[in-house]
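Schema walkthrough. Field components (list of strings):
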Amino acid sequence: MIDIKLIEECRGGNFSNFRKLVGLTSPYAYSLAFRMLGDEDQAKDVVQETMITIWQKLNKIKSAEVYMTWIYRIVVNKCYDQMRKKKRHPEYVADEHTWTLISNSISELPSADLEKEDNARIIRLMTDRLSPKQKAVFVLSEIEEMSGDEISEITGMSKSLIKANLHHARKNISDMIEKYL
Amino acid sequence: MTMTSESEKYDKIINLLRKSKPVLDSTEDIEREVINRLSRAKHSGLTLADVIDFLFGWVDIVWIRWSLITASIVLVLFFVYQQSIILKQIDFLSNHTTIIEEEPLSRSAYEIEKKVMMYKLSGRKIPAQSITISEKQMEQLLESVNELQVQYRDLLNLIKEDPELKKYIEEKLNENNRVKIKL
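Field assembly_structure (string):
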Protein backbone atom coordinates (compact mmCIF):
# COMPACT_ATOMS: atom_id res chain seq x y z
CA MET A 1 0.00 0.00 0.00
CA ILE A 2 1.27 3.47 -0.89
CA ASP A 3 1.60 5.88 2.01
CA ILE A 4 -0.61 8.98 1.68
CA LYS A 5 2.17 11.05 3.32
CA LEU A 6 4.44 10.25 0.38
CA ILE A 7 1.73 11.42 -2.06
CA GLU A 8 1.26 14.65 -0.06
CA GLU A 9 5.00 15.30 -0.10
CA CYS A 10 5.06 14.77 -3.88
CA ARG A 11 2.33 17.41 -4.31
CA GLY A 12 4.82 20.01 -3.14
CA GLY A 13 6.81 19.39 -6.34
CA ASN A 14 9.56 17.32 -4.73
CA PHE A 15 11.17 15.15 -7.42
CA SER A 16 13.10 12.91 -5.02
CA ASN A 17 9.88 11.91 -3.24
CA PHE A 18 8.17 11.40 -6.56
CA ARG A 19 11.04 9.16 -7.60
CA LYS A 20 10.23 6.97 -4.59
CA LEU A 21 6.57 6.93 -5.59
CA VAL A 22 7.51 5.91 -9.15
CA GLY A 23 9.68 3.11 -7.74
CA LEU A 24 6.80 1.79 -5.64
CA THR A 25 4.07 2.17 -8.26
CA SER A 26 5.70 1.24 -11.57
CA PRO A 27 5.92 -2.58 -10.95
CA TYR A 28 2.11 -2.76 -10.61
CA ALA A 29 1.55 -0.55 -13.63
CA TYR A 30 4.08 -2.55 -15.65
CA SER A 31 2.50 -5.90 -14.79
CA LEU A 32 -0.94 -4.81 -15.94
CA ALA A 33 0.35 -3.04 -19.06
CA PHE A 34 2.50 -6.04 -20.03
CA ARG A 35 -0.41 -8.43 -19.66
CA MET A 36 -2.75 -6.21 -21.64
CA LEU A 37 -0.34 -5.48 -24.47
CA GLY A 38 1.91 -8.55 -24.54
CA ASP A 39 4.87 -6.35 -25.37
CA GLU A 40 7.66 -5.28 -23.03
CA ASP A 41 8.66 -2.04 -24.75
CA GLN A 42 5.10 -0.86 -25.14
CA ALA A 43 4.42 -1.73 -21.49
CA LYS A 44 7.40 0.39 -20.41
CA ASP A 45 6.15 3.29 -22.52
CA VAL A 46 2.75 2.99 -20.88
CA VAL A 47 4.36 2.99 -17.42
CA GLN A 48 6.27 6.19 -18.24
CA GLU A 49 3.17 7.90 -19.60
CA THR A 50 1.22 6.78 -16.54
CA MET A 51 3.82 8.19 -14.15
CA ILE A 52 3.80 11.54 -15.94
CA THR A 53 0.00 11.65 -15.75
CA ILE A 54 0.22 10.84 -12.03
CA TRP A 55 2.64 13.74 -11.50
CA GLN A 56 0.30 16.11 -13.34
CA LYS A 57 -2.80 15.01 -11.42
CA LEU A 58 -1.51 14.26 -7.95
CA ASN A 59 -3.87 16.85 -6.47
CA LYS A 60 -6.80 14.63 -7.33
CA ILE A 61 -5.77 11.95 -4.87
CA LYS A 62 -7.66 12.33 -1.60
CA SER A 63 -6.80 8.99 0.01
CA ALA A 64 -4.22 6.26 -0.37
CA GLU A 65 -6.99 3.64 -0.75
CA VAL A 66 -8.15 4.98 -4.11
CA TYR A 67 -4.60 5.52 -5.35
CA MET A 68 -4.04 2.03 -6.80
CA THR A 69 -7.47 1.94 -8.49
CA TRP A 70 -6.67 5.30 -10.02
CA ILE A 71 -3.28 4.06 -11.25
CA TYR A 72 -4.86 0.99 -12.86
CA ARG A 73 -7.50 3.17 -14.53
CA ILE A 74 -4.80 5.35 -16.08
CA VAL A 75 -2.84 2.27 -17.21
CA VAL A 76 -5.92 0.72 -18.84
CA ASN A 77 -6.69 3.95 -20.71
CA LYS A 78 -3.08 4.29 -21.87
CA CYS A 79 -3.19 0.66 -23.06
CA TYR A 80 -6.38 1.42 -25.01
CA ASP A 81 -4.47 4.26 -26.73
CA GLN A 82 -1.57 1.92 -27.55
CA MET A 83 -3.96 -0.72 -28.96
CA ARG A 84 -5.55 1.87 -31.20
CA LYS A 85 -2.13 2.85 -32.53
CA LYS A 86 -1.20 -0.76 -33.25
CA LYS A 87 -2.16 -2.10 -36.62
CA ARG A 88 -4.78 -4.78 -36.22
CA HIS A 89 -4.13 -8.15 -37.82
CA PRO A 90 -6.61 -8.64 -40.64
CA GLU A 91 -6.88 -12.35 -39.94
CA TYR A 92 -5.72 -14.60 -37.15
CA VAL A 93 -2.68 -16.68 -38.08
CA ALA A 94 -2.12 -19.81 -35.99
CA ASP A 95 1.30 -19.64 -34.36
CA GLU A 96 2.27 -23.32 -34.07
CA HIS A 97 5.44 -22.60 -32.15
CA THR A 98 3.54 -20.76 -29.41
CA TRP A 99 0.85 -23.49 -29.22
CA THR A 100 3.60 -26.08 -28.77
CA LEU A 101 5.11 -23.89 -26.05
CA ILE A 102 1.74 -23.69 -24.29
CA SER A 103 1.21 -27.41 -24.64
CA ASN A 104 4.62 -28.18 -23.15
CA SER A 105 4.20 -25.65 -20.35
CA ILE A 106 0.83 -26.95 -19.13
CA SER A 107 1.85 -30.61 -19.39
CA GLU A 108 4.61 -30.12 -16.83
CA LEU A 109 3.69 -30.82 -13.23
CA PRO A 110 4.14 -28.40 -11.57
CA SER A 111 4.56 -26.04 -14.47
CA ALA A 112 7.62 -23.80 -14.44
CA ASP A 113 7.31 -20.01 -14.61
CA LEU A 114 7.38 -18.62 -18.12
CA GLU A 115 10.23 -16.57 -19.46
CA LYS A 116 9.22 -12.98 -20.15
CA GLU A 117 9.31 -13.36 -23.93
CA ASP A 118 7.31 -16.60 -23.82
CA ASN A 119 4.83 -14.97 -21.46
CA ALA A 120 4.37 -12.08 -23.90
CA ARG A 121 3.91 -14.46 -26.84
CA ILE A 122 1.24 -16.49 -25.04
CA ILE A 123 -0.63 -13.36 -23.96
CA ARG A 124 -0.52 -11.99 -27.51
CA LEU A 125 -1.75 -15.29 -28.90
CA MET A 126 -4.58 -15.61 -26.38
CA THR A 127 -5.83 -12.05 -26.60
CA ASP A 128 -5.15 -11.28 -30.25
CA ARG A 129 -8.76 -11.66 -31.33
CA LEU A 130 -10.24 -9.84 -28.34
CA SER A 131 -11.51 -6.26 -28.41
CA PRO A 132 -9.69 -3.74 -26.12
CA LYS A 133 -12.53 -3.93 -23.58
CA GLN A 134 -12.59 -7.72 -23.62
CA LYS A 135 -8.82 -7.73 -23.20
CA ALA A 136 -9.01 -5.37 -20.22
CA VAL A 137 -11.73 -7.40 -18.50
CA PHE A 138 -9.99 -10.71 -19.23
CA VAL A 139 -6.64 -9.53 -17.83
CA LEU A 140 -8.10 -7.80 -14.78
CA SER A 141 -10.49 -10.60 -13.92
CA GLU A 142 -8.74 -13.80 -14.97
CA ILE A 143 -5.05 -12.98 -14.63
CA GLU A 144 -4.91 -10.16 -12.08
CA GLU A 145 -7.81 -11.80 -10.15
CA MET A 146 -9.65 -8.60 -9.34
CA SER A 147 -13.26 -8.48 -8.13
CA GLY A 148 -16.17 -7.20 -10.21
CA ASP A 149 -16.35 -4.01 -8.13
CA GLU A 150 -12.67 -3.27 -8.65
CA ILE A 151 -12.91 -3.89 -12.41
CA SER A 152 -15.99 -1.70 -12.58
CA GLU A 153 -14.15 1.16 -10.86
CA ILE A 154 -11.10 0.78 -13.06
CA THR A 155 -12.81 0.41 -16.43
CA GLY A 156 -15.98 2.41 -15.76
CA MET A 157 -18.04 -0.51 -17.09
CA SER A 158 -21.19 -1.82 -15.44
CA LYS A 159 -21.07 -5.27 -13.85
CA SER A 160 -23.33 -6.74 -16.53
CA LEU A 161 -21.08 -5.37 -19.26
CA ILE A 162 -18.05 -6.81 -17.49
CA LYS A 163 -19.76 -10.22 -17.36
CA ALA A 164 -20.66 -10.05 -21.03
CA ASN A 165 -17.13 -9.05 -22.05
CA LEU A 166 -15.60 -11.76 -19.88
CA HIS A 167 -17.97 -14.37 -21.34
CA HIS A 168 -16.98 -13.40 -24.90
CA ALA A 169 -13.29 -13.40 -24.01
CA ARG A 170 -13.48 -16.84 -22.38
CA LYS A 171 -15.46 -18.27 -25.28
CA ASN A 172 -13.03 -16.86 -27.81
CA ILE A 173 -10.01 -18.30 -26.00
CA SER A 174 -11.73 -21.65 -25.38
CA ASP A 175 -12.54 -21.92 -29.09
CA MET A 176 -8.87 -21.38 -29.89
CA ILE A 177 -7.80 -23.98 -27.32
CA GLU A 178 -10.26 -26.46 -28.80
CA LYS A 179 -9.01 -25.80 -32.30
CA TYR A 180 -5.28 -25.57 -31.86
CA LEU A 181 -4.30 -27.30 -28.62
CA MET B 1 -11.76 -33.52 -26.99
CA THR B 2 -14.23 -33.22 -24.11
CA MET B 3 -15.58 -30.07 -22.53
CA THR B 4 -13.82 -30.92 -19.26
CA SER B 5 -10.43 -31.25 -20.86
CA GLU B 6 -10.92 -27.90 -22.65
CA SER B 7 -11.80 -26.12 -19.44
CA GLU B 8 -8.91 -27.87 -17.69
CA LYS B 9 -6.52 -26.65 -20.35
CA TYR B 10 -8.04 -23.17 -20.11
CA ASP B 11 -7.56 -23.17 -16.33
CA LYS B 12 -4.00 -24.45 -16.67
CA ILE B 13 -3.12 -21.70 -19.15
CA ILE B 14 -4.68 -19.07 -16.90
CA ASN B 15 -2.80 -20.43 -13.88
CA LEU B 16 0.40 -20.38 -15.89
CA LEU B 17 -0.15 -16.73 -16.82
CA ARG B 18 -1.09 -15.82 -13.24
CA LYS B 19 2.01 -17.49 -11.88
CA SER B 20 4.33 -15.88 -14.43
CA LYS B 21 3.99 -12.33 -13.22
CA PRO B 22 5.95 -9.96 -15.46
CA VAL B 23 8.67 -8.28 -13.42
CA LEU B 24 10.13 -4.90 -14.27
CA ASP B 25 13.89 -5.46 -14.64
CA SER B 26 14.94 -2.06 -13.44
CA THR B 27 12.65 0.50 -11.90
CA GLU B 28 15.59 2.92 -11.87
CA ASP B 29 15.49 3.29 -15.67
CA ILE B 30 11.82 4.17 -15.52
CA GLU B 31 12.41 6.55 -12.58
CA ARG B 32 15.26 8.30 -14.41
CA GLU B 33 13.36 8.59 -17.68
CA VAL B 34 10.23 9.94 -15.97
CA ILE B 35 12.17 12.52 -13.94
CA ASN B 36 14.09 13.60 -17.09
CA ARG B 37 10.87 14.05 -19.03
CA LEU B 38 9.29 16.02 -16.19
CA SER B 39 12.38 18.24 -15.87
CA ARG B 40 12.35 18.92 -19.61
CA ALA B 41 8.65 19.73 -19.50
CA LYS B 42 9.24 22.07 -16.55
CA HIS B 43 11.84 24.07 -18.46
CA SER B 44 10.08 24.12 -21.81
CA GLY B 45 7.21 26.52 -22.48
CA LEU B 46 3.52 25.83 -22.46
CA THR B 47 2.47 23.57 -25.33
CA LEU B 48 -0.91 22.95 -26.89
CA ALA B 49 -0.90 19.49 -25.34
CA ASP B 50 -0.43 21.08 -21.89
CA VAL B 51 -3.37 23.42 -22.46
CA ILE B 52 -5.58 20.57 -23.66
CA ASP B 53 -4.49 18.45 -20.74
CA PHE B 54 -5.19 21.28 -18.30
CA LEU B 55 -8.66 21.89 -19.71
CA PHE B 56 -9.77 18.32 -20.41
CA GLY B 57 -7.38 16.17 -18.39
CA TRP B 58 -10.10 15.50 -15.82
CA VAL B 59 -11.92 13.32 -18.36
CA ASP B 60 -10.42 9.84 -18.20
CA ILE B 61 -12.48 8.26 -20.98
CA VAL B 62 -10.70 9.07 -24.21
CA TRP B 63 -13.65 9.34 -26.60
CA ILE B 64 -15.52 11.67 -24.21
CA ARG B 65 -12.38 13.83 -23.91
CA TRP B 66 -12.07 14.15 -27.68
CA SER B 67 -15.80 14.85 -28.04
CA LEU B 68 -15.47 17.68 -25.51
CA ILE B 69 -12.43 19.10 -27.32
CA THR B 70 -14.29 19.00 -30.66
CA ALA B 71 -17.40 20.60 -29.16
CA SER B 72 -15.27 23.37 -27.60
CA ILE B 73 -13.52 24.11 -30.91
CA VAL B 74 -16.89 24.30 -32.71
CA LEU B 75 -18.27 26.67 -30.04
CA VAL B 76 -15.18 28.91 -30.20
CA LEU B 77 -15.39 29.09 -34.02
CA PHE B 78 -19.11 29.90 -33.83
CA PHE B 79 -18.39 32.61 -31.24
CA VAL B 80 -15.69 34.18 -33.44
CA TYR B 81 -18.00 34.06 -36.49
CA GLN B 82 -20.83 35.68 -34.50
CA GLN B 83 -18.51 38.39 -33.16
CA SER B 84 -17.26 39.22 -36.66
CA ILE B 85 -20.87 39.63 -37.85
CA ILE B 86 -21.69 41.89 -34.88
CA LEU B 87 -18.60 44.03 -35.54
CA LYS B 88 -19.52 44.35 -39.21
CA GLN B 89 -23.04 45.48 -38.25
CA ILE B 90 -21.67 48.02 -35.76
CA ASP B 91 -19.32 49.35 -38.42
CA PHE B 92 -22.17 49.60 -40.93
CA LEU B 93 -24.44 51.44 -38.46
CA SER B 94 -21.69 53.80 -37.33
CA ASN B 95 -21.26 54.97 -40.92
CA HIS B 96 -24.94 55.98 -41.05
CA THR B 97 -25.21 58.04 -37.86
CA THR B 98 -25.19 61.90 -37.72
CA ILE B 99 -22.37 63.02 -35.51
CA ILE B 100 -23.17 65.92 -33.22
CA GLU B 101 -19.92 67.64 -32.50
CA GLU B 102 -19.06 69.59 -29.44
CA GLU B 103 -17.94 73.11 -30.39
CA PRO B 104 -16.52 75.78 -28.14
CA LEU B 105 -19.24 77.98 -26.67
CA SER B 106 -17.46 81.26 -27.42
CA ARG B 107 -18.15 81.12 -31.16
CA SER B 108 -21.45 79.23 -31.06
CA ALA B 109 -24.40 81.60 -31.07
CA TYR B 110 -22.65 84.35 -32.97
CA GLU B 111 -21.45 81.95 -35.70
CA ILE B 112 -24.90 80.46 -36.14
CA GLU B 113 -26.54 83.87 -36.33
CA LYS B 114 -24.00 84.98 -38.89
CA LYS B 115 -24.62 81.92 -41.05
CA VAL B 116 -28.41 82.27 -40.81
CA MET B 117 -28.15 85.96 -41.65
CA MET B 118 -26.00 85.23 -44.70
CA TYR B 119 -28.52 82.77 -46.03
CA LYS B 120 -31.42 85.20 -45.33
CA LEU B 121 -29.71 88.07 -47.12
CA SER B 122 -28.89 85.98 -50.14
CA GLY B 123 -32.50 84.76 -50.18
CA ARG B 124 -31.52 81.12 -50.09
CA LYS B 125 -32.80 78.37 -47.89
CA ILE B 126 -30.39 76.79 -45.43
CA PRO B 127 -29.46 73.44 -46.95
CA ALA B 128 -30.01 70.33 -44.85
CA GLN B 129 -26.97 69.05 -42.90
CA SER B 130 -24.98 72.15 -43.85
CA ILE B 131 -24.69 73.41 -40.26
CA THR B 132 -23.44 71.23 -37.52
CA ILE B 133 -24.51 72.36 -34.07
CA SER B 134 -24.03 70.93 -30.66
CA GLU B 135 -26.74 70.29 -28.07
CA LYS B 136 -25.55 73.23 -26.00
CA GLN B 137 -25.74 75.54 -28.98
CA MET B 138 -29.28 74.37 -29.65
CA GLU B 139 -30.26 75.08 -26.05
CA GLN B 140 -28.79 78.58 -26.30
CA LEU B 141 -30.70 79.23 -29.50
CA LEU B 142 -33.99 78.16 -27.94
CA GLU B 143 -33.33 80.33 -24.88
CA SER B 144 -32.68 83.39 -27.04
CA VAL B 145 -35.88 82.69 -29.05
CA ASN B 146 -37.85 82.52 -25.79
CA GLU B 147 -36.31 85.78 -24.58
CA LEU B 148 -37.21 87.46 -27.86
CA GLN B 149 -40.80 86.25 -27.57
CA VAL B 150 -41.08 87.68 -24.04
CA GLN B 151 -39.60 91.00 -25.12
CA TYR B 152 -41.97 91.08 -28.11
CA ARG B 153 -45.00 90.52 -25.86
CA ASP B 154 -43.83 93.28 -23.48
CA LEU B 155 -43.41 95.66 -26.40
CA LEU B 156 -46.92 94.88 -27.69
CA ASN B 157 -48.40 95.50 -24.24
CA LEU B 158 -46.52 98.81 -24.00
CA ILE B 159 -47.85 99.93 -27.40
CA LYS B 160 -51.43 98.96 -26.48
CA GLU B 161 -51.28 100.91 -23.24
CA ASP B 162 -49.94 104.11 -24.87
CA PRO B 163 -52.19 105.38 -27.78
CA GLU B 164 -49.74 108.10 -28.78
CA LEU B 165 -46.91 105.63 -29.09
CA LYS B 166 -49.20 103.33 -31.08
CA LYS B 167 -50.07 106.13 -33.48
CA TYR B 168 -46.41 107.08 -33.87
CA ILE B 169 -45.36 103.51 -34.65
CA GLU B 170 -48.17 103.06 -37.18
CA GLU B 171 -47.08 106.21 -38.96
CA LYS B 172 -43.46 105.00 -39.03
CA LEU B 173 -44.48 101.57 -40.36
CA ASN B 174 -46.56 103.20 -43.13
CA GLU B 175 -43.59 105.37 -44.10
CA ASN B 176 -41.35 102.32 -44.25
CA ASN B 177 -43.82 100.48 -46.47
CA ARG B 178 -43.94 103.39 -48.86
CA VAL B 179 -40.13 103.48 -49.06
CA LYS B 180 -40.06 99.75 -49.80
CA ILE B 181 -42.64 100.11 -52.60
CA LYS B 182 -40.63 102.96 -54.14
CA LEU B 183 -37.49 100.83 -54.08
